[in-house]
């Protein structure tokens, strides 16, 4: 049985952290180096995001803060190992992670929207049922005044003994 490869180039997402020993101005060449690494390996960058400087949950290499960057790119699978190796060897980058990202088709997006709408409708129905049940529960409860009156009636009656 043979495996059939699709002709599409896989889409990846790279999240990397640059140490905070660099200033905002010194980040530009590092980011360009990452982009150049991807492009040198026949990759094409489709989206980039700067998440800014954030505090770590635990120290990484004696650093407590770092600059988070996100890059989405398309590259052939064979070239991914070279990109990963180059990022591991870069001393400016504290951590990085490359994840294969599935690109959704329009049909999949529409299907997810329909499912989300059905879930929202069910939630609304359940909330309405809960409200009605709560109102019924409140109606079923007797007032303290009513209880006091009934207790007084029982105590006044001569049938106690």
Structure overview:
The protein is an alpha+beta fold and 161 residues long. It has 2 domains: 11-100, Alpha-Beta Plaits; 106-155. The protein is 48% helix and 29% strand. The chain has 4 helices and 4 strands, in the order βαββαβαα. The protein has helices spanning 24-40, 77-89, 106-140, 144-156, and strands spanning 11-19, 44-60, 63-74, 93-100. It has a 4-stranded antiparallel sheet with strand order 2-3-1-4, covered by helices on one side.
CATH class label of the largest domain: Alpha Beta
How confident overall, as mean pLDDT?
A: 85
Write the CATH homologous superfamily of the largest domain.
Answer: Ribosomal protein S6/Translation elongation factor EF1B
> Quaternary arrangement of the chains shown?
single chain
Strand count, sense and barrel status of the largest sheet are: 4 strands, antiparallel
